[in-house]
Prior knowledge:
The structure holds 2 protein chains of 2 kinds. By secondary structure, chain A is an alpha+beta fold. Helix content of chain A is 46%, strand content 14%. Chain A contains 11 helices and 8 strands. Chain A has helices spanning 14-33, 49-58, 76-88, 94-110, 113-124, 246-254, 263-273, 279-307, 313-337, 348-365, 372-383; strands at 130-133, 149-153, 156-164, 174-180, 193-199, 205-211, 217-230, 234-235. Chain A has a 4-stranded mixed β-sheet, covered by helices on one side. In chain A, strands 2-3-7-6 form a 4-stranded antiparallel β-sheet, with no helix packed on it. In chain A, a hairpin with a 2-residue loop joins β2 (149-153) and β3 (156-164). The longest helix of chain A has 29 residues, at 279-307. In chain B, a hairpin with a 5-residue loop joins β2 (113-115) and β3 (121-129). In chain B, α6 packs parallel to α8 and α7 (240-269) packs antiparallel against α8. Chain B has 2 domains: 2-189, Butyryl-CoA Dehydrogenase, subunit A, domain 2, CATH 2.40.110; 196-355, Butyryl-CoA Dehydrogenase, subunit A, domain 3. The longest helix of chain B has 33 residues, at 196-228. In chain B, strands 1, 2, 3, 4, 5, 6, 7 and 8 form an 8-stranded mixed β-sheet that branches. Chain B has a two-stranded antiparallel sheet with strand order 9-10. By secondary structure, chain B is α+β, with helices and mostly antiparallel strands. At the A-B interface, α3, α7, α8, α9 and α11 of A face α6, α7, α8, α10 and α11 of B.
Amino acid sequence: MATELTFDAIRLPSECEALRKDVRAFIAKEIDAGSLDPHGGGIDGAYSADFSRKVGAKGWIGMTWPKMYGGHERSFLERYVVTEEFRVANAPVRLHFVADRQSGPVILRYGSERIKADILPRICRGEVCFAIGMSEPNSGSDLFAARTKATRTKGGWLVNGTKIWTSNAHQAHYLIGLFRTSSPSKENRRHGLTQFVVDMKTPGITVNPVYQMTGAHDFNEVVFEDAFMPDDHVLGEVDGAWKQATSELAYERSGPERFLETFYVLTELVRVLGQRPDTRGAEGIGRLVAQVHTLRRMSVSVAGMLHAGKEPVVEAAIVKDVGTIWEQKLPHKARDLAAFVAPQSANRATFEERLNYAVMIAPKLTIQGGTTEILRGIIARGLGLR
Amino acid sequence: MEAENLVAETARRILADVADPQSANRAKDDAWKAPAWAALEGAGLALAWVPEALGGAGAELADGFAVLREAGRSASALPLAETVLAGWLLSKAGIASPRGALTCGPARDGERVTMSGDGTVSGSLRAIPFAKGATHLALLAERQERQDGGLAIALLDASQAHIGDGTSIGGDPQNWVSFKAARPAVVKDAPAGIDGQALMLMGATARAMQMAGALEAVLELAVHYANERVAFERPIAKFQAVQHNLARLAGETAAAVAAAGSAADTIAHAATFDEAVLLEAAAAKIRVGEAAGEGAAIAHQVFGAIGFTQEHTLHRFTRRLWAWRDDFGNESAWAVKLGNLVAAKGADGLWPMLAAR
């Protein structure tokens, strides 16, 4: 049992501040050039091959990876700064974000030498988009119910089945797929799943769009029909994917993107309430700022632990649980606080447009990448309750 | 963190020894308090922030805050935080702290102490924690004869003030303190930068650390209880509804620990009570106060009826959590201050302000 939660007061080291200046200067230049719109368009990070290539050239993808694979051997805390500055500026990082955060590290740890040498440098150059192929029509939070099958064939595997809710699959060059290679064993229902790097150009793969309630196209259904996976595309142990999942999740769960996804609503709220808000407005802003400041302290603290080589699985789950609930409630609180803003006041149209978008996307925040219920189960286990 | 901090470790050991919540709760009277206080004083914890030259322990600010987290963890009904703060305030003007329990003021928004030209002080302070039982009051007074808003720090013998009865929702003394043309034992000018807001920021951070510690203790108690208590033929910890409540309590506790710890660390490293301190301490008092409210409610739900009894120790923590929210500025008061600061800087100043921490 571990009820002692560690959230030490970690500060980003000074080299991060120089980097932050560079990133902000880069963003300012991109805004001037019209390639980054901080106030509109695809609000949750658009897809831009041009932008991702520039970010790669700056050395801001694969920042923590070894130089031999195109990485830059910088610290996890430096990566944190780049992530949060891009997130707040609404930078179009969609192409490289998942590869940088999740897929690259998995390949680095479990990939064959050929795959690492082939793919990682291209991720670092901002050329490669990854999708994550975990969920299936009958397997969402319960990952180990996955049924898409990979069966042995000469020199590799043949995959058949369907993945769903696969973000970016229609734009991705690769997907990391979780496929069933054996039946679950009696003792361990998690046994029998294997991770693969899937080249999306492989014959036998069809991507069908699943439009979201906002009208956006992000989700897809990915259908595999005798799609061939060479042996060296296996990641880690055959049948043993369940052992590989946990430590990456701490990275995935505690980052600044887990509470800043609707941050623009707070910025626009401050703008629309003006420099002299009434008491109600001031109190509302003050509470929201205190809450987001606290979340950032928690998130930086976890980043510091990851940097120190620890595996703060429970702390990371807590950051995502508290953070996603906050970013989900934020638009609704902002709506209340702006209720009496004069209809003709400046900035109101922008505020409402962004607010409405945030209200619409808010439900997904506590679902994607591990639902609230799954997170609370992990926290409960960490507390020694199950 | 605790294991690395010797001062906090000492405090934890002594508090467990002399102010264990279970024994304190069983005690029929207050007889345990005098020896407990003597132990804290003897270990130098009561005057943690007073330099050795002025009779204190000369501990670092960070260590003192860590001690207050321990005090919260034991929900001790002793004026440790009040004395530590009063000693700090007096030492800022170079005034030595007398022995015994101290308290300080003003501790609420909108209250003030004035000093006339003859050096006497007047004031009416609504809710001073642990004034009853304190030997002296450390006061921050506005010099009325001065146009420049000059401030003085005064040490006033408690016998010079009228101290009302009354207790906080936590059951600790919380008193209406009034004095008119009372003559302090010592008066000195407050140094630049030590003003009403500075005292409120220190007090707010001290209370935030106490609340964070109390929430840690509450989480530990609640998890332990859920694993022990059997209902419907299994420990209630096995019910998902209970697990999720406790996960939420862990989230609120984590937020409290992070916010309070960050504010304490900021003050410990700051040269002045600048804007960074204001952001951190205000945010801590707001967020930890919210966590106190949420956390106490969840804990009571987990414990059910037994947690609502006098006999159980839970109330020692939850009642103090509720009370501490109100000292040195409640959530709403700090939120208005912080909100106005953010609004004045403008929308595009918000992120740079947060990221600078």
